[in-house]
Design brief:
By secondary structure, the chain is of the alpha/beta class. It has 13 helices and 11 strands. Helices cover 35% and strands 14% of the residues.
């Protein structure tokens, strides 16, 4: 794309890249600056969560390439701060994620502002019927390129499931993260409140950690990611906001403190480790209420996750539920990750020691 824009000189916005999350938009724009360092092309990024005034000023400089999240771009279009009538190249990154986040109506509105004579590139980790319909509407005679089989996990990811009672998850997590083999770890929870509570628990146990989720300001999210990327903290506790697209080098462990509701999110989560040919470890905690989620993940990836039983908090009850193919439909009576005083279960043990 950069080569094409450099050869076909113009004056104004000629390429638009849409991304579902602010973090991904910022990363794309950073990459564009790096790849185009020696080209006479200008790029800019617009996203929500920060003041619009600086973005309006950047748009007045008439960048060649604009990276945007759909909501903020639509606001700028409606306020007549940006026009898309000279766009030659449209890129829809993580289209399935935009669909999941409810952005497709905004995307269609934005695309209606762009000339029909253009090159359109649509990237998607999965190809559902909805994404296929979107591609049919926005692309003409597209060439389809599949880089990996559906729902595949990199072969160098060592995947394991750890059966554990809900009340012991916090102690197990501390136990693992205190291991000498953990260089940098990404811990996933299903909710932002759980992410904050897990982060505070880790901090109380002497583990340098921060949390990232949609309740944090954009500047706060960027500071947390920068601290993780630069090694100032060892652990980042996150919701699925960072499960896709964020490329941080050297993540040795991905830990699913809570299994995702959507099986496909498992693939995106564990894909944050073992990047660029490196090896990585993906550990998934599973309590009685998550057996059916685990079954869904195993059905998607087409094999059972091997169980790691050599830890101090192994639950034979939960493991037997997995073997039986059943799970608790409701919270079990001992559902207590945190007592009223905010403490996790027992004192930490040692994984495999």
């Amino acid at each position: 794309m950069l080569d094409m824009l450099q050869r076909r000189r113009g004056n104004g916005l000629r390429a638009l890249v849409l991304a579902p999350t602010r973090e991904l938009a910022l990363q794309i724009e950073t990459s564009l600056r790096a790849y185009g360092r020696y080209l006479s092309l200008r790029s800019s990024v617009v996203l929500g969560g920060v003041s619009m005034s600086g973005q309006v000023s950047a748009l007045r400089k008439r960048p060649d390439i604009l990276v945007a999240t759909p909501g903020r771009l639509l606001d700028l279009i409606r306020q007549r701060h940006v026009r898309l009538d000279e766009v030659e190249i449209l890129v829809l990154d993580e289209a399935d994620r935009m669909l999941d986040m409810g952005f497709i109506h905004d995307v269609r509105t934005i695309v209606s502002e762009i000339p029909t004579v253009r090159q359109t590139l649509l990237f998607s980790a999965t190809l559902s019927s909805e994404i296929a319909g979107l591609a049919c509407d926005m692309l003409k005679n597209p060439v389809s390129v599949a880089t990996t089989p559906p729902a595949s996990v990199a072969v160098k990811v060592d995947q394991k499931v750890l059966f554990v009672d809900q009340a012991d998850k916090g102690s197990l997590l501390v136990d693992i993260l205190q291991g000498s083999d953990v260089r940098r770890a990404l811990v996933f929870t299903r909710t932002k409140h759980r992410a904050d509570r897990v982060m505070r628990h880790l901090s109380r146990n002497g583990i340098s950690a921060d949390a990232i989720h949609s309740n944090k300001s954009q500047n706060g999210r960027q500071r947390s990611l920068a601290a993780f990327d630069k090694g100032r903290i060892t652990v980042l506790v996150a919701t699925d906001i960072v499960a896709r697209g964020i490329d941080v080098d050297g993540i040795s462990h991905v830990i699913n403190y809570e299994l995702p509701n959507d099986a496909e999110s498992y693939v995106h989560r564990v894909g944050r480790t073992a990047r660029a040919g490196a090896a990585g470890i993906a550990l998934s905690f599973c309590d009685a209420s998550e057996i059916l989620m685990l079954k869904g993940i195993e059905k998607l990836i087409q094999h059972e996750l091997p169980a790691a039983e050599e830890h101090a908090f192994h639950s034979t009850v939960v493991a037997s539920l997995h073997k039986q193919g059943t799970g608790a439909s409701e919270r079990p009576a001992h559902w207590q990750s945190f007592s009223p005083r905010g403490r996790f279960g027992r004192r930490p043990g040692r994984l495999g020691r």
